[in-house]
């Protein structure tokens, strides 16, 4: 039991995918205009992540090593398509708000990253908990960014007015530049508190390890320069 | 007509910049922009792949997926086609043009996971673009990506010499630079034709 709870703690705090590992920056920046969008995107990704970890972990002995990445991509893309259709049918307003970023869950580095780093080596139960922990960690980070942007840029939190009427909201925060600014500030606060982000350093190849393991640019550069 | 096609390129390259406005391809934008040379090489590889991928995806959608009513399969088909396409482009260049292969080499296989490629293919379908419009929009988007990453790389080469407050070092200052670039690019939003 303890092992399973440790997975949750790991995903939410110790290796928070967005705040510590700096994975999945595209959706974090793009849909954090409202706290509600952050929750919607976070939970959709969590659902896909739990199911993909489950399927990949269950099939880990059946999938040949050489074709594992294409196989993972097919599994994840199928799950994303199902999720997209469900959201379109039952939550049309969320579908409208998230738009193209729902199908783009396929290329969210957290999902393939967890498949490679965890699900293909561990039991189904642990992999599901890992997916849940990582997914919730992503949801919390997205909602935090969304909440900050919504309060500063629109004066509301989850749609309810929180800033007093005399305070003019700073519209820039719900515009694209605000996304970069808020994430920069969150990471700066973390740095000031001494919470280290875990980026791999690969300076010589031009990569500085942000989003490591996601673009695979850095992995590949590592192989090439290592030779 | 020509007016319209030009508008597609300018709008996808500058007004709706793929990185600064739509947040696609952020990972490589932040991760590889440390060095000018790497950024420029990645930019060229991205132009190459996105332009071809947009064309292929558009043909596939118009002539296979749409007539067969398999619209909902587009995400899964596009991602596989992009992955295969990148492999083919890589093999082709290795054989036919070793010089280009050497320059783009390490960046080609990784573009598969760059969400900008899939993003453009899906947006083109959503906007109902035909083949030519899709290719141009793909090309414009990739040029916008290259412009953004090269600009960020040059800003970062200046920042490296500066004495920054400790908490801002590393990722935060890069993101703040990107925010300022994004503000600058918002200015293009007022362009009208």
Characteristics:
heterodimer; A: 227 residues; mainly alpha; two-stranded antiparallel ribbon; 9 helices; 2 strands; B: 193 residues
Major sheet of chain A: size, sense and barrel closure? 2 strands, antiparallel
Low-confidence stretches of chain B: none
- Domains counted in the coordinates of chain A: how many? 1
Multimeric status of the protein? heterodimer
Structural class of chain A: mainly alpha
Helices and strands of chain B, in order, run as: HHHHHHHH
Low-confidence stretches of chain A: 200-227
- Total beta strand runs of chain B: 0
Query: What sort of overall outline of chain A do the alpha carbons produce when their principal axes are compared?
Result: globular
Q: What percentage of residues of chain B falls in helices of 4 or more residues?
A: over 70%
Strand proportion of chain A, as a percent range, falls in: under 5%
Largest interface: A-B, 58 and 56 residues
Supply the number of helical segments of chain B. Answer: 8
Overall 3D shape of chain B:
globular
Decide which structural class fits the backbone of chain B: mainly alpha
Beta content of chain B comes to under 5%
Q: What's the quick description here?
A:
Chain A has helices at residues 2-14, 25-31, 35-58, 68-90, 92-98, 109-119, 124-154, 176-192, 217-226, and strands at 156-157, 160-161.
Detailed description of the structure:
The complex is a heterodimer of chains A (227) and B (193). Chain A has nine helices and two strands. In chain A, 63% of the residues lie in helices and 2% in strands. In chain A, a hairpin with a 2-residue loop joins strand 1 and strand 2 (160-161). Chain A has helices at 2-14, 25-31, 35-58, 68-90, 92-98, 109-119, 124-154, 176-192, 217-226; strands at residues 156-157, 160-161. The relative contact order of chain A is 0.18. Chain A has a two-stranded antiparallel sheet with strand order 1-2. Chain A has one domain (2-159, 171-192). By secondary structure, chain B is an all-alpha fold. In chain B, helix 4 (74-96) packs across helix 5 (98-104).
């Amino acid at each position: 039991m303890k092992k399973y709870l440790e997975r949750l703690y790991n995903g939410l705090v110790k290796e928070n995918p967005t705040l510590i590992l700096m994975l999945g920056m595209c959706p974090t920046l793009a849909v954090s205009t409202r706290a509600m969008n952050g929750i919607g995107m976070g939970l959709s990704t969590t659902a896909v992540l739990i199911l993909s970890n489950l399927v990949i972990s269950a099939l880990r002995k059946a999938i040949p090593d050489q074709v594992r990445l294409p196989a993972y991509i097919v599994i994840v893309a199928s799950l994303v398509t199902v999720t997209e259709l469900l959201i379109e049918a039952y939550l049309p307003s969320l579908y409208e708000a998230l738009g193209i970023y729902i199908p783009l869950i396929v290329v969210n580095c957290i999902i393939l990253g967890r498949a490679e780093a965890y699900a293909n080596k561990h039991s189904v139960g642990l992999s599901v908990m890992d997916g849940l922990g990582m997914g919730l960690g992503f949801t919390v980070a997205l909602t935090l960014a969304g909440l900050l942007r919504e309060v500063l840029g629109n004066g509301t939190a989850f749609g309810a007015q929180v800033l007093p009427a005399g305070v003019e909201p700073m519209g820039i925060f719900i515009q694209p530049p605000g996304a970069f600014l808020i994430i920069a500030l969150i990471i700066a606060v973390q740095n000031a508190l001494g919470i280290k982000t875990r980026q791999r350093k690969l300076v010589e190849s031009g990569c500085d390890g942000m989003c490591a393991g996601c673009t695979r640019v850095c992995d590949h550069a590592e192989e090439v320069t290592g030779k | 007509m020509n007016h319209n096609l030009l508008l597609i390129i300018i709008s996808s390259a500058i007004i709706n910049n793929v990185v600064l406005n739509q947040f696609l391809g952020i990972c490589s934008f932040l991760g590889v922009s440390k060095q000018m040379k790497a950024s420029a090489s990645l930019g060229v590889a991205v132009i190459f792949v996105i332009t071809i991928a947009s064309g292929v995806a558009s043909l596939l959608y118009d002539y296979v997926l749409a007539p067969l009513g398999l619209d909902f399969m587009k995400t899964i088909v596009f991602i596989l086609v992009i992955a295969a396409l990148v492999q083919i482009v890589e093999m082709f260049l290795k054989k036919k043009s070793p010089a280009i292969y050497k320059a783009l080499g390490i960046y080609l296989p990784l573009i598969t996971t760059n969400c900008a490629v899939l993003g453009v293919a899906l947006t083109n379908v959503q906007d109902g673009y035909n083949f030519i419009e899709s290719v141009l929009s793909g090309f414009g988007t990739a040029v916008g990506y290259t412009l953004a990453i090269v600009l960020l790389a040059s800003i970062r080469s200046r920042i490296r010499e500066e004495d920054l407050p400790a908490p801002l070092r590393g990722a935060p200052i890069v993101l703040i630079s990107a925010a300022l670039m994004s503000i600058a690019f918002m200015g293009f939003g007022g362009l009208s034709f």
